Each structure stands twice: as structure tokens, then as C-alpha cells.
Amino acid sequence: MKFQKLFLAVAAIVASSSAFAFDGTITITGKVTDQTCQIKTGTENLTVRLPEVGTSSLNAANKTAAATRFTIKLENCNPGNGNVLAYFEPGNTIIGSRLKNTATTSPASNVEVQLLNNNFQAIDLSQNSATAQSSTSVPVDAAELSLDYYAQYFATGAATPGEVASSVNYTVVYN
């Protein structure tokens, strides 16, 4: 009986000490701001139609074609200091810094979709912040604002004919 009580006491001490053991710490930071905008009603979900291009436009790796503008429109902004920009969220449509071709019917091969900011600089979708992605940033200085971006074809090799499709989620953020 004494052995059983001793065993239970030791087991309780071991169990409680392992509950307090840890290998590291995760520190989480953030900021909530009153400087917010709303996406203009009816423009939350955008469809960008890239024009048709010939395979000769995408006949080698790193060639691009058909940069097509799209705009995220914001309203009811609270002007003040700071900037607003879009953060393109991680997801299964992202491959490296670009969007993979997810067309399911007759997909073009060796073609991805690249996003560009308003200065035609590539947005790096592999980055974990809008600033690191090189997203378009505008000062919050009016009640209505526009964030301009571009989408274009990007060849990873000599393209073959076919369909191109992809999508990405975004969140409006402030810095």
C-alpha cells in the first residue's frame, strides 16, 4: 500500500513538471487602428481579364506579357497620418512569388500570373507583409482612395497554348 501511494505521488510530480516544460516562446504583436477604409460596395471581388496573347510573347522563361490594370476602390476612409495598401494573402494558388495557373480545362503550360504594383514593380507573394510584398501604398488623405495594381502573364519556360486562371485573396492593411 505504501508503495502504491509513493508511486502515485511520484507520478503526479513527474506529470506536473512536464506540463510546465517548454522549448521556446512565441511573441505576438499587432496594432488596431481607427484609421480604416471600407472597400467600395460592389468592388470587393474583382475579375481581371488578361488579353489573349500568342505563345511567341511567352517563348522563354521570365518573359512577361499583357500587363492589365485593376483597382481596389476604398471609401469612408478616415483621413489622417499613415498609408493604406493591400496584403495579398498566402494560399494554395501561390507558387513562389507568383500565382500558379489553376485552369482545369486545357491549361497553358509554363505560364503563371504575376502581380505588379502601381510602379510596375513585381509584387512578391511569398512575403508575409504588404510592405515586404512591395504592394501599392497610398496616403490616407481623402474619404475615397484607389489602389492600382496590374496582373500579367509570366513565362516559366516556353509557353504552350491553353487557358490561364488563378485567384488570390487580399486584405486592406495600414502602415
UniProtKB/TrEMBL annotation:
Leader sequence residues: 1-21
Compartment(s) where it occurs, according to its Swiss-Prot or TrEMBL record: Fimbrium
SUPFAM superfamilies hit by this protein: Bacterial adhesins (SSF49401)
InterPro entries named among the record's database cross-references: Adhesion_dom_fimbrial_sf (IPR036937), Adhesion_dom_sf (IPR008966), Bact_Fimbrial_Adh_Pro (IPR050263), FimA-like (IPR039458)
UniProt keyword terms in alphabetical order: Fimbrium, Signal
GO CC annotations, alphabetized: pilus
Source organism of the structure: Advenella kashmirensis W13003
Single Gene Ontology BP annotation: cell adhesion involved in single-species biofilm formation
Source organism, top-level taxon: Bacteria
Main localisation: other
PANTHER family hit by this protein: FIMBRIAL SUBUNIT ELFA, FIMBRIAL SUBUNIT ELFA-RELATED
Keyword set includes Ribonucleoprotein: no
Record keyword Transferase present: no
Family matches, as Pfam families: FimA
Record protein name field: F17 fimbrial protein
Family per similarity comment: Belongs to the fimbrial protein family.
